[in-house]
Specification:
The chain is an alpha/beta fold and 598 residues long. The protein contains 18 helices and 14 strands. The strands form 4 sheets. The chain has an 8-stranded mixed beta sheet, sandwiched between helices. A two-stranded antiparallel ribbon has the order 1-3. The protein is elongated, with a radius of gyration of 33 Å.
Length: 598
């Protein structure tokens, strides 16, 4: 009888002389090789006394097994290193870093574990590999090895990222082993095609008894399973490509920024709790005038306040100082678990003393920097004025996105999950951290983007949040200032900042987000809460939170100081939270600070 084989079928079998006739009807492109026994199918064809390159095929099989073992060892090593650096990054306290960050090394190990695991899983689960899939994985593996080389070079050129540079090397042998495994498997399949095409023509026949191959023809269900295995592997490989490319971009930006961005000020070393810390401080202007010290926000750096500091110096004859807190901006040091260090007021006082700045001081803090200014005033008697620029200390707790609510410890798990799932932020550079077209000074916009994208910046934020969650309630700022939490989470202070003038400058869009103010003009027609969603829970919460921010601003001015009347000045219409570096509003802020303090 005549054997007919569907054109889309895949046969996996051990060829014997009896099976030759049926196999001859298969086009060469339909012949694939099982990954579990890549050469056994062609080792027994010795009836004619020819070895057919058996020794070479056995060596090929041994080399495949050796490469597979090598990849498995690299996968296990990468997993152990990833776990170690994950623990170091998020659990080990009391570690000091300068310029470097353990997250960089963690991502290198994670990416290598990801690649080796996906590749080996695909290799073992997909028994019959098509020529196309082998070619695709060879290309993926080659790209991965190349990216490892790029990361190695970039991190080697960066400051103190030796661990990340060393772990980048793991990508190279992993990618090379994967590439050579795919090429070797293709070569083994080529032997089968060659054997079938050069068989003795006397054994060929179109009318033979039905063969009984030792392999099996995959049914529709099995082919579907194989398709989905290939699809899943390629999907994970595509996500890995995004992850690894982000690591390459992060490494390149790290090397570029470390060697191109120059801080405007100096790096000073201070010692606190037997720990030496290096911080960046830039002071300029009239040394005989009052010094205004600026505290940047929690997700920012000192360059976001440079234009405001320059405006006070150039237009009002003041002396200005900007600096970067631990782990931010140009400050080299950051300390894991900052709760074990003194508060920011103590650290800032030591930094200014080291730089020879004697005061008197006024402190202007934006967002989270407002709390830092209050700590500074609490710790340093030379501070006689505080400006709170859209900052709401004690009203906003870590992990909470609404005023007056308690802390949310779940935010730490979310940050850890993002660090593992998303990895390096190199691909998001410019899209995340861009201060916008209205930023001043415009010449420093790229610097702000670069500083925002630093790996250690993200870990610093994590530990700042952790420190807030760990803080004992009795050591919180409002307790130190004799305050109490009243109805709705609003904080009333005990007036302990004696002799300190308090100026509160809320952003208009923060404290005036009501339906009437938000939806009153033509420009607001596309506002979410101005249409059908006006009465939604989200919009009602926004309106209610706006009132709470306004009430808290009034309480700051009324209760922080008992002997000096505070002042609340609401920013002009349209002022957003980032108004401190907005070209439309920063001069207005400088005018308010000068009129109250200078």
């Amino acid at each position: 009888m005549t054997i007919k084989v569907p054109s889309n079928a895949l046969l996996v079998f051990d060829r014997s002389e009896k099976d030759q006739a049926a196999a001859d009807h298969l086009p060469p492109a339909q012949i694939a090789l099982s990954s579990t026994q890549p050469t056994e199918t062609i080792q027994n064809n010795t009836a004619d006394g020819k070895t057919g390159g058996t020794e070479e095929k056995m060596l090929l099989h041994a080399s495949l097994r050796f490469r597979k073992i090598g990849l498995l060892c690299l996968a296990l090593s990468s997993f152990c290193i990833f776990i170690a650096y994950f623990v170091i990054s998020f659990n080990v306290k009391g570690r000091l870093y300068e310029y470097s960050c353990p997250l960089s090394a963690m991502w290198m190990a994670l990416a290598n574990f990801w690649y080796t695991t996906v590749f080996l899983s695909w290799w073992q689960l997909v028994k019959t590999k098509s020529q196309m899939m082998l070619q695709v994985w060879a290309v993926i593996s080659s790209i991965f090895a190349l990216e490892g080389f790029l990361c190695l070079v970039c991190y080697a050129a960066a400051k103190r990222e030796e661990a990340a540079s060393g772990l980048s090397f793991l990508w190279i042998p992993s990618g090379v082993l994967g590439t050579t495994m795919c090429l070797a498997q293709k070569k083994a399949a080529a032997y089968i095609i060659s054997e079938l095409s050069t068989s003795d023509s006397s054994e060929k026949s179109t009318a033979v008894d039905p063969p009984t191959p030792k392999g099996k023809c995959y049914s529709r269900c099995c082919c579907t399973c194989q398709f989905w295995l290939n699809f899943t592997a390629l999907f994970l490989a595509a996500w890995l490509f995004v992850f690894s490319t982000g690591c390459v971009c992060q490494a390149a930006f790290t090397a570029s920024d470390d060697n191109s961005m120059t801080p405007p000020g100096k790096i000073y070393t201070i010692t606190t709790n037997d720990v030496e810390l290096q911080l960046h401080l830039y002071c300029f202007g009239n040394s005989s005038s009052k010094t205004v010290v600026f505290e940047h926000g929690g997700g920012a750096n000192s360059m976001t306040l440079l234009a405001l500091a320059e405006e006070l110096v150039n237009q009002y004859g003041a002396r200005s100082c900007i600096y970067d807190r631990l782990g931010y901006g140009f400050s080299p040091s950051y300390y894991v678990s900052p709760s074990s260090l003194p508060n920011t007021g103590v650290i800032l006082s030591k930094l200014l003393a080291e730089a020879g700045e004697k005061g008197p001081f006024a402190c202007a803090g934006h967002s989270a920097g407002a709390e830092a200014c209050l700590w500074f005033a609490h710790e340093n008697q030379a501070v006689d004025a505080v400006a709170m620029m859209d900052g709401y200390p004690d009203l906003i707790r870590a992990g909470s996105f609404r005023p007056g609510q308690g802390p949310n410890p779940g935010i730490l798990a979310a940050i850890r999950g993002m660090a593992v799932a998303v990895g390096a932020t190199g691909l998001a550079r410019g899209a995340v951290g861009d201060p916008g077209e209205d930023f001043v000074p415009s010449s420093e916009r790229g610097t702000v983007i670069g500083l925002y994208g630093q790996t250690r910046f993200w870990l610093s934020q994590y530990w700042d949040v952790a420190a807030d969650l760990e803080a004992d309630e009795e050591k919180r700022l409002y307790k130190q200032l004799g305050g109490r939490i009243g109805e709705g989470g609003l904080v009333e202070y005990g007036g302990s900042l004696r002799g300190v003038k308090v100026l509160v400058l809320p952003a208009e869009r923060t404290v005036n987000k009501t339906f009437e103010s938000t939806c009153g003009g033509e420009e607001s027609k596309n506002e979410y809460c101005c249409g059908h969603a006006r009465n939604s829970r989200r919009c009602l919460d926004l309106f209610a939170d706006s009132v709470k921010y306004r009430d808290q601003a009034l309480l700051y001015a009324a209760t922080l100081s008992s002997d000096v009347n505070g002042t609340v000045v609401f920013a002009p219409k349209g002022a957003e939270h980032t108004f401190v570096n907005d070209c439309k509003f920063y001069q207005w802020i400088a005018q308010q600070i000068a009129s109250e303090f200078l």
